[in-house]
Structures are given as structure tokens and as C-alpha cells.
Amino acid sequence: MLEVEHLYTEYPNANGQIVKAVQDISFKVPQGVLFTLLGPSGCGKTTTLRSIAGLERPSSGEIRVGDTVLYSSLKNIFVPPNQRNFGMVFQSYAIWPHMSVFKNVAFPLEVGKKKWSKQDIDSKVMRVLDAVGLGQEAGRDSTKLSGGQQQRLALARALVMEPKLLLLDEPLSNLDAKLRERMRFELKSMQKEFGLTTIYVTHDQGEALAMSHEIAVIQSGKIAQIGSPRSIYESPENQFVANFVGLSNFIKAHVLGPVENDFYQVRTAIGDFEVSSIETLSGGDEVLLSIRPEDLQWLPESHSQKNMIQGTINFQLFLGDFLDYQIQVGDQEFLARVHPSTILAVGSQGKFGFEPNKCLALR
Ligand SMILES: Nc1ncnc2c1ncn2[C@@H]1O[C@H](COP(=O)(O)OP(=O)(O)OP(=O)(O)O)[C@@H](O)[C@H]1O
Ligand SMILES: [Mg+2]
Which pTM does this prediction carry? Predict the structure, then answer.
């Protein structure tokens, strides 16, 4: 449905230098899929989205929707934004303050190319207002809405046009934690119900994992990894992804040799372990091991297994659903996330084990 190929976008900054905001970004988004651009502040997410919308003219690359070329540096094509017919909700969303809630959503239909009867407009507007939970507020002055309601109104306005592509730039950023969770759920079900192909921008990894069919993790204008939420989380291909998407413990290691398919024996400063790798490794390779805190399991004192670490509990943090322990092993610190019923005293010794397939060797 959407194809972005070798996109580069540069900006001149105040000192006349060139900021390479987006460098060689390519991805494909099939029909009906929610595709997320995930990355830290300033990595180029908004720039990529604005380039798809046509609000930014890239320096090179190509953007296509189906068979239509929207932008191509080689063919010298640039379709202006108002002819792309995409729905958009921006980071700094703007509602029209002099209009009611209803009118804000009806307006794009009234002025659009396609002519709708008043009855059609009424039913379309109420359908999306109900979907975003603003049905009751239709008659209200839009400036009287809370920040979160305004954000939902901006979303309704984008949805009412039934766009072939929906571009959302941090659409839930102004909501409190509880409402954000509810809106994630609602957005996701609307996306499904309307079958909307959606490009979703966020810096929140939890949101990206919860909402997306596919995620592109972006680091300094480049794609660090593209994959399903599960593969991004469970098989990060580099340290940046392992660190940015969830928490991870990292240990430097030296490969001793293969054990069996995709499994290797490695040596670290705190012992030898059996680990897994998606890449083929050879004896002598230097790697970085990555273990998620929730994959470290607390072991009773008497227990022994092949992948084990033992150290002093430095401190603990109770977080309701789980308990985090910081464990000092030699000069290495580990974070273990365990069930809240686990009782280990700060200052005492703790033993933790992990499965070889939960410990990834990254090059
Ligand atoms: N109009 C502009 N002029 C100059 N530089 C810009 C402009 N817009 C963005 N940049 C720069 O391009 C880079 C990428 O910016 P972008 O807005 O795409 O980041 P982002 O990933 O959306 O970040 P955030 O999560 O903070 O919104 C940044 O270094 C930014 O300072
Ligand atoms: Mg942004």
C-alpha cells in the first residue's frame, strides 16, 4: 500500500550547517496494517511522517501509495499535500476554536471535493464522535474541551474523511496515563474496524509494542530494525534496539564455540554461559549479551543450573505488579524483575538463572 524508498531529508540549521534529519529510510506498509515509527526525540520520526504527508520536501528518495508516485527525486515528482488525501493528527494538533465539536468534524466533509447530503454528514460525524467517546459533547464549544478531549476531536476529524492512509504523530501524548491506555485500545479497535492503514509515530516503546503490527525502530535518522513487536522485543539485532525497546542487562562476552544450532558457549568476566544468537558466530568473536530483567529467575539457594549468576542484592523497588532487584555480581550490575511475592533482603545473596534462548548474543 505505502512504500518509502531511500528517503533522505535535510534541514539547514541556524549556523548554516546541514542537519541530516532522515538518512536512507525505506519501509513498506501493507493495506490495513498499523506501522509504527519508534525512536527517541529528534531521531527523525516527525520528519518522515511530514514527508509522507507532503508537508516536507525530502532531498531524495521515492514515496508511493499503490501505483501512484507521490514523490520521486529521480522522476522529479512531488504531489502537493492537499491532493494526497491522507488523514493526519499532529503532535501539536489544532482544533478550530470558533467551531463546535460537531462542526469541527463536519467541516472537512462540507468543504471537501465530494458533496455530501446533510443527512450523510450527520451520520458520519456522529459515528466517529461516538467512536472517540465524544458523542455526548457534539454541541459543545470545542475550546471548552480538555486537552485529551481535544486530541480525540482531532482524531475524529481525521477519521471522518475515511482516509486511505492515516498519519498519527504522537496522538496520545497529551493524555493522562489512564486515558492514554483506554485510547490505545480504542484507536486500535477503530483502526481494525475501519481497516485503516496507519503510520503511527511514538517515542513510547510500551505503546509501540501494544499497538503495532510492525515497528521500525529509528536511531539518528536511520532504521535500526524493522519487525513485529515480538521480534523487536525478543530478538533485538543491536544494542540500541535492545536498550530502547524495554530494559536489558548487557554483558561483554567472548565466544568459545557452538553448542548446537543457534546456541553458543561464551565466556564473560562473571562466568561461562550458554547463549543464543540469530547470527552465525565463530569461536573468538567478541559479543554483547543481552538479558531482559524479567528473564532472570530467582533460584532457591540449593538450586544449581548451567546459566546462573550470584550476587548481592543492592536494592529493591516495589512497582505493584512486580519487584525489581538490583544485583551486584563482581563489578557488573544486573536488574531482575520478579513476582512481587519474592522476598529477598537487601544486602543478602541472591541466585538467578536464565534460559539460553533468553540470553541473546549481539555483535
Ligand atoms: N524545520 C526544521 N529546521 C531545521 N531542523 C529541523 C527542522 N525540523 C526538524 N529538524 C531537525 O531534524 C531532526 C529530526 O527532527 P524530527 O522532528 O523529525 O524528530 P522526532 O523524531 O519527531 O523527535 P520528537 O520525538 O522530539 O518529536 C532533529 O535534529 C531536528 O532538530
Ligand atoms: Mg516529532
Answer: 0.83
